[in-house]
Design goal:
heterodimer; A: 365 residues; alpha+beta; six-stranded antiparallel barrel; six-stranded antiparallel β-barrel; 10 helices; elongated; B: 200 residues; mainly alpha; 9 helices; 72% helix; globular; disordered N terminus
C-alpha cells in the first residue's frame, strides 16, 4: 500500500465508508499503532478545518450581501438606544419640575436685585455640611466664655468609620477642620472610646483620614466590607449607617444622580433623608460594598444628600502611598464577607466599625 | 404596500419578527436556512454597530466583529450538545462584547470600562475558543492562498462540493479520473504541509 492509497483508506474510514474486513483491519491498526492513530487524528483535524474554513468563507460572502443591503437602507437608524429611551422617559417629568424650579428661582432672584450680588453665597448656603453643630452647647459656651473669660471647648459630632484594621478611620474634612481634640465612640457590642488624631486631610475632596492614637486600642478584626470603585448606577439601592444622634441610625435610599451639588462629579446625589451628624457615614450598596461617604445635603430639597464617591477615597489613599514613608499603613479592605447576608445581619457586621466622632474645637479668643 | 424607502426599511426589519419565533430561528440556523440567517443578521446588526461606535470603534470594526460573532453562533448551534440559555440577541451581543474587549486590549485602548446598552452574559476567557479559531482558520486561509490554483479549486470541488473525480477531471480538463485523483492527492499533501507549518 503506497502513501496515496493509505490516505484514501483513512479518508474512507473518516467518511464512514469502510465495511467488513477493511474496517476491521483498520480498527485493529488504529488500536495497535499509536503513530497511525495520531496520523488519522491529524488528518481528520486537517480536513475538518478545511471544511469549516470553507463554510465560514461561504457564510461571510453571504453575510456581505446582507450587509450591503443593510448599508443601502441605512437600517441602523432604527436602532433605538434602550438606555437613552428609558433615560428620557424617566427624566422628562423630573426635568420639567427642575426647569420650573429653575425659572422660579431665577425670577425670585431677579426680582430682588440685591440678591444678585449674593447669588454665590446663597447657593453655597443651599449646601449644608452635616456636622452636628450643637448650637445649644455653643451658646451656653459663649455665655460661659463671657462669664469666665476662658477658652473653653465647643463640641459637635459626626460619623467616622474604619477603613483599615490597624486603626485608620475616614470622615469628612469639614467635620474636623478646626478640631482640637477628637474621640470616636462605638456604642454597639461594647462601648469603645478612643482618642483619634488627623492623619491626613484633603479639603478639596472633603475627606479626612483619622488615626486612633490610644494605648487601649488593640486593632480591629477583619473589616467585613470592601470598596467598590466603579460607578454605581442610577436607581441602585444604597444605605448608610451613622450617628446623627446618640444612637446608630440606618438610612436607605437610591443613587439619584451621578453628580452631586451643582454637578460636582466627585459626588453622588442619594435619596436618603439625612441629618447633621450623618456626615462621614459610609454609603454602601445592596451587597455591602462601599460606594461613597456621606458629606452633605441640599438645604432646600428634602431627602437629597450627597456622598463622595469611593473612587476618590481610593485616589486619596493612593496619593498617600506616593507621598509618605508610612505607605503600608493604610490598606483598604479587600474582601466583602457580607455580600450574601440579609440587611440586618449586614448591619450587625458593620456596626462595630462605625463610630460617633466627637470633635472639640477651641474657641478663638 | 407602497414601496418608498422608510416603509420598506422598517418593514424588512420588523415584519419578520412577527413570523419567526426564537425557536424557529434556532431551528432554521441549525438547518442552515438562508432566509433565517438573513433575518438574524439584519436584525441584530444595529445594536452591535451602536455598541462598537460608542466604545471607540468604527463601522468596519463593527462589521468584522459582528460577522465573527454570527459565525460563533452558527457554529455553536451546529454542535448538538449546545444549548442556548439566553435570548439570541443577548448571545450575539455578549459574544461581540467579548470580542471587542479583546480587540481593545490588543490595541491598548481599553481603559477599564465598556459602555453597555444591552444585557449580556460574561463569558469565560476561553469559552468561545476565539484565539484558537483565529489561529486555525487564519492558518488555513494562508495555506490556501499559498497553495494557489488549480489546486485549491480542485480540493474545494472534491472536499467541499463533493464532486466525483469523473466530473472534476472533465471540468478541469484532466485526461482521466485517475489522473485527477493523483493530482488531488498531491495538492492535498501540499496544503496539509503548509497548513501545519502555519498552524503549529
Amino acid at each position: 500500500m503506497n502513501l496515496q492509497e493509505k490516505y484514501e483508506w483513512i479518508e474512507a474510514y473518516l467518511a464512514g465508508k469502510l465495511e467488513g474486513e477493511s474496517l476491521a483491519s483498520f480498527e485493529e491498526k488504529l488500536q495497535k499503532e499509536t503513530l497511525f492513530a495520531e496520523e488519522v487524528e491529524q488528518h481528520r483535524f486537517f480536513l475538518e478545518t478545511l471544511r469549516q474554513h470553507e463554510e465560514r468563507e461561504m457564510l461571510k460572502a453571504q453575510m456581505n450581501i446582507f450587509h450591503k443591503d443593510l448599508e443601502k437602507h441605512k437600517a441602523w437608524v432604527f436602532y433605538k438606544h434602550p438606555v437613552i429611551q428609558n433615560f428620557w422617559k424617566k427624566h422628562i417629568p423630573t426635568m420639567a419640575v427642575a426647569a420650573s424650579v429653575a425659572i422660579l428661582t431665577a425670577a425670585t432672584i431677579l426680582w430682588n436685585e440685591r440678591n444678585i450680588n449674593h447669588l454665590e453665597n446663597q447657593q453655597i448656603s443651599y449646601f449644608r455640611s452635616l456636622r452636628n453643630d450643637l448650637d445649644a452647647v455653643k451658646k451656653r459656651q459663649k455665655s460661659l466664655e463671657e462669664a469666665q473669660q476662658e477658652t473653653p471647648l465647643v463640641a459637635y459630632t459626626a460619623t467616622a468609620f474604619a477603613i483599615t484594621e490597624n486603626g485608620y478611620l475616614l470622615t469628612n474634612y469639614h467635620a474636623v477642620k478646626n478640631a482640637a481634640e477628637m474621640y470616636v465612640e462605638a456604642k454597639q457590642d461594647s462601648t469603645q472610646r478612643y482618642k483619634v488624631k488627623i492623619f491626613h486631610k484633603d479639603e478639596m475632596k472633603d475627606l479626612a483620614i483619622l488615626k486612633i492614637e490610644d494605648t487601649a486600642f488593640q486593632g480591629f478584626k477583619t473589616l467585613p466590607y470592601a470598596f467598590r470603585y466603579d460607578s454605581a448606577d442610577l436607581g441602585e439601592e444604597v444605605f448608610t449607617l451613622a450617628y446623627p444622634r446618640e444612637e446608630l441610625v440606618y438610612g436607605k435610599g437610591e443613587i439619584a444622580s451621578k453628580t452631586g451639588f451643582e454637578g460636582d462629579s466627585l459626588e453622588y446625589q442619594v435619596s436618603i433623608p439625612v441629618n447633621p451628624g450623618n456626615s462621614g457615614g459610609p454609603l454602601l450598596d445592596e451587597k455591602g460594598f462601599l460606594v461613597g461617604i456621606i458629606n452633605g445635603k441640599h438645604t432646600q430639597q428634602e431627602g437629597a444628600a450627597f456622598a463622595i464617591k469611593a473612587k476618590y477615597i481610593k485616589n486619596l489613599v493612593d496619593s498617600l502611598e506616593v507621598n509618605k514613608e508610612d505607605k503600608k499603613e493604610v490598606i483598604l479592605p479587600q474582601k466583602n464577607i457580607i455580600q450574601y447576608l440579609k440587611r440586618p445581619q449586614q448591619i450587625k457586621a458593620l456596626q462595630n466599625y462605625i463610630f460617633e466622632l466627637e470633635v472639640y474645637e477651641r474657641k478663638d479668643k | 404596500m407602497p414601496k418608498f424607502l422608510p416603509e420598506y426599511t422598517t418593514n424588512f426589519l420588523m415584519n419578520h419578527a412577527l413570523h419567526y419565533s426564537e425557536a424557529d430561528i434556532v431551528a432554521g440556523l441549525r438547518k442552515g436556512d438562508n432566509k433565517i440567517l438573513e433575518f438574524v443578521y439584519k436584525q441584530n446588526y444595529p445594536a452591535i454597530l451602536h455598541f462598537v461606535i460608542q466604545n471607540n470603534g468604527t463601522d468596519q470594526d463593527a462589521k468584522d466583529l459582528y460577522q465573527e460573532a454570527i459565525l460563533v453562533l452558527y457554529e455553536k448551534l451546529k454542535q448538538e450538545n449546545f444549548l442556548l440559555t439566553c435570548q439570541l440577541k443577548t448571545f450575539v451581543y455578549s459574544v461581540c462584547r467579548r470580542l471587542w474587549l479583546k480587540k481593545l486590549r490588543e490595541k491598548g485602548r481599553y481603559y477599564g470600562k465598556i459602555e453597555d446598552f444591552e444585557s449580556f452574559i460574561p463569558f469565560e476567557e476561553d469559552e468561545l475558543h476565539i484565539e484558537e479559531n483565529e489561529h486555525k482558520y487564519g492558518a488555513m486561509a494562508k495555506a490556501l492562498e499559498m497553495l494557489g490554483e488549480p489546486c485549491s479549486t480542485l480540493l474545494k470541488d472534491f472536499y467541499i462540493d463533493s464532486m466525483s473525480m469523473q466530473d472534476i477531471s472533465e471540468k478541469m480538463g484532466y485526461t482521466n479520473a485517475d489522473n485527477a485523483k493523483n493530482q488531488k492527492y498531491k495538492c492535498l499533501m501540499r496544503l496539509k504541509k503548509i497548513f501545519f507549518e502555519k498552524y503549529k
